[in-house]
């Protein structure tokens, strides 16, 4: 990791706690519009997120077509959910204004407790950039809301694809004028890191609660290469990563 000059971050789940943020907005909106108090908003939020994950991966792999703007995709999935038999009772309560407000909840996601402090510490050492499937306006609004101090925002919207298509990672590195070995992908999802590693990038896996379904399926946790695993580094916080990188910097 001592050759790394830029950290390139996944955002949803890695930098921000989308689940708590979206569930919180759903609860407030549900109460305002008279939804039953026992509505399982966690289940709704997960279904919304799962639809996004399925759509972006299928488009990235060329298996399907669809909107390359995530705001448009989120709204499409939201309307489908609210029209389904399981959620139609909620759908009848949410008018157009409510749906528009709810769809923009993804612009107002809060960071994890370590996020801002960790990013600011890392920014002093290296370039810090996003590489997210979120559209540009979403990422800008999120950065302002959560005080995320990015040096640069890369959205796959700019590259007409979604992760884990190789084009997304290659274009980000091209714009940074850096070779793969000088860039590290930071993510809470092993599929994202595998795609980055296949192109020669370094990889940092962030453990985040209930976030990485792909890693859970394996029945074992993600391990670093020194422990017989597949990623360069495994961390529990960005502040931990800042400390690790600080110790690896050459002394004068």
UniProtKB/TrEMBL annotation:
The keyword Hydrolase applies. It comes from the Eukaryota. GO terms for molecular function: hydrolase activity, acting on acid halide bonds, in C-halide compounds; phosphatase activity. Keywords: Hydrolase. InterPro entries: 2-HAD, HAD-like_sf, HAD-SF_hydro_IA, HAD_sf, PGP-like_dom2, S-2-haloacid_dehalogenase. Belongs to the HAD-like hydrolase superfamily. S-2-haloalkanoic acid dehalogenase family. This is Haloacid dehalogenase. It comes from Agrocybe chaxingu.
């Amino acid at each position: 990791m001592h050759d790394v000059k830029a950290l390139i971050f996944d955002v949803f789940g890695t930098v921000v706690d989308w689940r708590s943020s979206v569930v919180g907005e759903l609860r407030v909106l549900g109460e305002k519009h008279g939804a039953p108090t026992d509505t399982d908003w966690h289940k709704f939020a997960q279904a919304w997120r799962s639809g996004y994950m399925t759509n972006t991966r299928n488009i990235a792999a060329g298996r399907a077509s669809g909107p390359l703007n995530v705001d448009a995709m989120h709204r499409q999935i939201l309307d489908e959910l609210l029209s389904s038999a399981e959620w139609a009772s909620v759908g009848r309560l949410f008018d157009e204004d409510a749906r528009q407000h709810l769809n923009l909840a993804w612009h107002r996601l809060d960071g994890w407790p370590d996020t801002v402090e960790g990013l600011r510490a890392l920014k002093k050492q290296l370039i810090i950039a996003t590489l997210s499937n979120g559209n540009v306006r979403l990422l800008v609004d999120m950065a302002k809301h959560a005080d995320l101090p990015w040096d640069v925002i890369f959205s796959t919207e700019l590259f007409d694809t979604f992760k884990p298509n190789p084009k997304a990672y290659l274009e980000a590195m091209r714009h940074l004028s850096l070779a793969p070995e000088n860039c590290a992908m930071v993510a809470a999802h092993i599929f994202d890191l595998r795609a980055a590693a296949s192109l020669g990038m370094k990889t940092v896996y962030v453990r985040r609660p209930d976030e990485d379904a792909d890693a859970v399926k394996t029945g074992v946790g993600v391990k670093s290469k020194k422990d017989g695993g597949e990623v360069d580094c495994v961390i529990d916080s960005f502040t931990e990563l800042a400390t690790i990188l600080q110790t690896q910097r050459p002394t004068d």
